[in-house]
Design goal:
Number of domains: 1
Radius of gyration: 17 Å
Structural class: mainly alpha
Order of helices and strands: HHHHHHH
Helix content: over 70%
Number of strands: 0
Length: 184
């Protein structure tokens, strides 16, 4: 069904817009934008949870926007890291070291893969949520509720596909980094 594919692509594209908005918000508002930034992240997580299943159910071939889904997800995490730095949640040198460290990892491993993308994003989202909770912000609890709800809905896919794929990918990347040669 082509309409499902168009909807999936629109959801993916909306994350690109949310990433840009999050970066602008961080530049303009800093710590005054934490709730709005968290709401944008929740919206982005929701679009990410929906676009893949819709695209697969459509039966249509992957489009260019579907091929850049993972880079868009990483861009969102980068925009959030910028907001966190602007809001004083992360010192500038930590944010820069994190990005440079990951640039080195991605270069060493031959580029962005789904497991490495998840490994890059995860700490950013965990730290952001932890900082919101430490500040007693309700939206931080909402982020935990979102994650718990998603895990309850998608537990089978997470347990039997996503987590094993993630662990295999991280193991492969670690082998490449430590051995100096790509592993298969």
């Amino acid at each position: 069904m082509p309409w499902m594919k168009h909807l999936a692509d629109a959801l993916t594209g909306s994350r690109l817009i949310l990433s840009a908005a999050l970066a602008v918000l961080g530049t303009v508002s800093g710590s005054g934008a934490l709730e709005a930034g968290a709401a944008m992240v929740l919206a982005a997580w929701t679009t990410d949870a929906l676009d893949g299943p819709l695209a697969r159910r459509s039966g249509c071939s992957q489009t260019w926007i579907g091929r850049i889904d993972l880079p868009i997800d990483v861009l969102l995490a980068l925009a959030l890291l910028h907001l966190m730095r602007s809001a004083g949640m992360t010192p500038p040198f930590v944010a820069v070291a994190y990005v440079l460290g990951w640039a080195l990892i991605l270069w060493r491993c031959g580029g962005l893969t789904k497991p490495l993308g998840a490994a890059f994003q995860g700490p950013v989202y965990v730290w952001f949520t932890a900082c919101l909770l430490a500040r007693g912000m309700f939206i931080g609890r909402m982020m935990l509720v979102w994650v718990a709800t998603y895990a309850a809905i998608a537990w089978r896919r997470l347990l039997f596909r996503d987590i094993p794929d993630f662990l295999r990918g991280v193991r492969r990347a670690a082998g490449e980094i430590l051995s100096g040669a790509p592993t298969e």
